[in-house]
Please model this.
Amino acid sequence: MKVKICGITDLNSAEAAIKAGADALGFVFAESKRQMTAEQAAAIIKHLPDSILKVGVFVNEDREKITAVIEKTGINVIQLHGDESPEDCLHYEVPVIKAIGISSSNDLKKVSQYDCEYYLLDSPKGKYRGGNGTSFNWEETKTFNKEGKKIILAGGLNAENVAEGIKMVDPYMVDVSSGVETNGVKDIDKMNEFLQSAKRMKEEIKK
Model:
């Protein structure tokens, strides 16, 4: 099971997440308590292994701004977490994750409208797009045909419920932010526990 730790804001957290087994790190360039500047992200990313996915999270951002951030930071995947149209997600030089808020099974139909490398299923928007610590009803995915699609499960995940989420949704990757924080700061113990729970559950499914 691949794991993305989102909302990285410092090098220590990034390195701890990688050491714990994270496959991807998320850097937020949209309004959020975890928002980064391109300069701040670049200072962290230059120290990270090439094998790690460095995901830039944007909400309804101009294409020119996104392209500039990619060039300045070394971001190698972008996550579009706003109201972007299918056309808005095309013609980038790096893979695209399109985030879709799930409030009912009807929202899952939106996945087929987009031609992206990854689809992130998240809880409906709250104060911010993502990182709000709430889950959507995973039962909604039971009739969803995800064959051939790389689905990322997000929204309210933590070490206690990630195994259940993986079992019910069977995603390609899970994504966590606030679920591995204490008082708004990434918690090394919680990251370790989350990674262990996610990886262990995937091995159990394989048996």
Notes: The first strand starts at residue 2 and ends at 5.
